[in-house]
Amino acid sequence: MDDSSLLTALAQIYPPERLLTSPAQLAPYESDALTSFRARPKAVVIAASQAEVIQTVRMCHQLEVPFVARGSGTSLSGGSLPCPEGIVIALNRLNRILRLDPDERLAVVEPGVVNLEVSRAAAPYGLYYAPDPSSQPVCTIGGNLAFNSGGAHCLKYGMTSNHVLGLKAVLPDGEVVELGGESLESAGPDLVGLFVGSEGLFGIALEVTLRLLPKPEACKTVLAAYRSLGEAGQTVSQIVACGLLPGAIEIMDNLAIQAAEAAVQAGYPLDAQGLLVVELDGEAATVEAEFEKLLAVIRASGAYDVRVARDEADRQRIWKGRKSAFSAVGRLSPDYIVQDGVVPRGRLGEALLEIQRLSAAYDLRVANVFHAGDGNLHPLILFDGRQAGALERAEQLAGEILRMCVCFGGSITGEHGIGMEKRSFLPVMFAEADLDVMHILHRAIDPRQIANRGKMFPA
Amino acid sequence: MLTESATASRLSEIQEIVRASSRLLPRGAGSKTAMQAAQADVTLLEVADLSGMLEYQAEEFTFTALAGTPLADIERRLAENGQYLPFDPPLVGRGATLGGTVAAGLSGPGRYRYGGVRDFILGVQFVDGRGELVRAGGKVVKNAAGFDLPKLMVGSLGGLGLMVELAFKVFPRPPAYTTLRCEYASLGEALEAVTRLGRLPLEIMALELEPSPSGAALYVRLGGIPEGFAHRLDRLRLILESGNQTQMDGQTELQFWNAQREFAWADVAWALVKIAVTPRNVPALDERLATHRAARRYSAGANLAWVAWPGALGTLDHILKEIRLPALTVLGPSGQARLGRQVGATFEARVRQALDPAGKWLVL
């Protein structure tokens, strides 16, 4: 396909102001939140309707042009990295909440709707959308769906997949399908479950039916500071062992605390080596009683400073610190890589020690922020990309961490997805026969391999 | 429970059978009578002997077990550690296995609070149509690597492969339960109570509706620390606006919910059908069901209808297609498992064709 016929075909669908082709226009789309990867697409189209998306996908299929769907570009795994021989379909303008039905507790939204907007729209009815990736003020539902995004509250509430009831999608060959529905239940294979988390390889979701939940009546959040990261980790096991089901259990290490505190003044104790954040949510009376139980565990756990969030504003401040930790770490270092491996919760301590050892061996600083309740690590590997070989060293260190996660019986990704970044590690986690079945399925849905080409599977 | 080596040799035996057969259907305990082969030319792959929990560490909130493991065994082990499968899998008393529950995609009353079987499955190992052993998903509570084949297996009715091993997430079981039963003069009023409750920040574990000729009864189940119940129940009573309320506790309460999971209310001579609904669909459905004198319950906050159907299933299928609801026959005559509306049929066909090009697995 030569460029000029591609552009001519696109110009039949899009007016000039929504068909971007000049280098200056394309530059913002060359990368997503994984900035170490860049690629310039042939064009970016800014779709304004579902019909345009369908038409574009059909054209791409016909001309065998790869396409990458993109929302806000917050993928940390390079999930929306453009394909140099293809186009980017920007979906931000498909941002309508088509229906919000408080009685049925659901919202039907277009893929470009921002995650937090769903909760905002549901708030007057006492409802909210539970999945809360840290990027929720900007990331879109389409991207959340494609990558089965998580967040801080997954242990109790699950990931995106647990909150998608139905969807309408255009498959890579242009077929439009509806999967699932509005009920919590279904009959037949869980096709919605298969589509969610397919990293854009199965096409583009055009409409998504999301489950809403009643906003918990009460949330109580406690911060506990420890002199070692290990102590913070052990406390997690004790909390879980006493039968509590916290909404969130997070841990930050000293480097992450320093960074977050400098960025948003969350009031974190700067000298702590491990900071534990635990949140209980539910009915006020229950939360009150369970919180006493939680505090008893924490007080006996060797925490040297325990602070309970005074009010909602204080609680928000604590979360702001945690949720801005990734970007805050950016202040400590010109570049960083975030990893997303998972280990069984019982092996968190071991995993953290191993990361410390690797950090020393590679002479690269590593900050740790993680969803401790899920065993989902987020080591941030700091490096200076201006130094020759620094990125490669950081990637090597990241790779060793991923191998460790698999070795411990965990996963190479908890919530960021494989994307571009971890595709060479998929075979570390899965055997040839496993990958073979995924390939077969992939080819059945996208025979020309045009949807988000190059992602998930090893090159 | 088989030893590791016996499991391995049984597995290669199964793989051999799969390679050599042209029409296959896995069979666990056979508790879901409607999900069996009606044809004679089908090789039944008995997997009830692939049984036993393989890994269970309570502090991880996860376990892995062979697919043929009876749920009763799993629930017993979990209970020893104060844990449970929060979706209250049905038919445990009839010997239902973990694999059968996944294949049928069945969840009981508890699915209202934390989700259904699809929300707790983490990983699967299965034998595909080529006889290959395939693993997907993981064993940890959070994982986003690769296509989510474990979820695809939920509701697959054995038609996409034979599940060998499954990994699940579990939760701590609430230390106590209490249930409030409220009577309403009409199903409409009871449904209104369901939607009202659904929007309030109440930690309701299960919410079930039982229509009757004189109206409907609503069962609201609370779980948690018993000291909190008095206050929570007072609050519920005010919200429910029903004059006739009774409270159930202890063994009576437990037995009531167990009976719900076992469908003790359904006539054994009738077929039992699950229908995916929302509260808004219920009036139209219920009216038709009442005309045909079907017994029924609405579970999971009126998201799941359980229907005991006295007549020919074809009639029910027709009704469900008309009101566009997908359904599944669980107990009763084989050969008519999927009823009503089929959603995403062409996508399903492509998935099926990809995973089983030779069409070995029987499609129920």
List strands and helices in order, with pairings.
The complex is a heterodimer of chains A (459) and B (364).
Chain A: H1 3-11, E1 19-20, H2 23-26, E2 43-46, H3 50-63, E3 67-70, E4 87-90, E5 97-101, E6 106-109, H4 115-122, E7 127-128, H5 141-147, H6 154-157, E8 164-170, E9 176-180, H7 191-195, E10 204-211, E11 213-214, E12 218-226, H8 229-241, E13 248-253, H9 254-264, E14 274-282, H10 284-299, E15 305-308, H11 312-323, H12 325-329, E16 335-338, H13 348-362, E17 366-371, E18 379-383, H14 390-407, H15 426-429, H16 432-445
Parallel strand pairs in A: 2-4, 3-4
Antiparallel strand pairs in A: 1-2, 5-6, 6-10, 7-11, 8-9, 8-10, 12-14, 12-15, 13-14, 13-17, 16-18, 17-18
Helix pairs in contact in A: 8-13, 9-11, 13-14
Chain B: H1 4-20, E1 24-27, E2 43-46, E3 53-57, E4 62-66, H2 71-80, E5 83-84, H3 98-104, H4 111-114, H5 117-120, E6 121-127, E7 133-137, H6 149-153, E8 162-169, E9 171-172, E10 176-184, H7 187-198, E11 204-212, E12 215-224, H8 229-240, E13 244-248, H9 250-262, E14 271-276, H10 282-291, E15 295-299, E16 304-309, H11 313-322, E17 326-331, E18 338-340, H12 345-355
Parallel strand pairs in B: 1-2
Antiparallel strand pairs in B: 3-4, 4-8, 5-9, 6-7, 6-8, 10-12, 10-13, 11-12, 14-16, 14-17, 15-16, 17-18
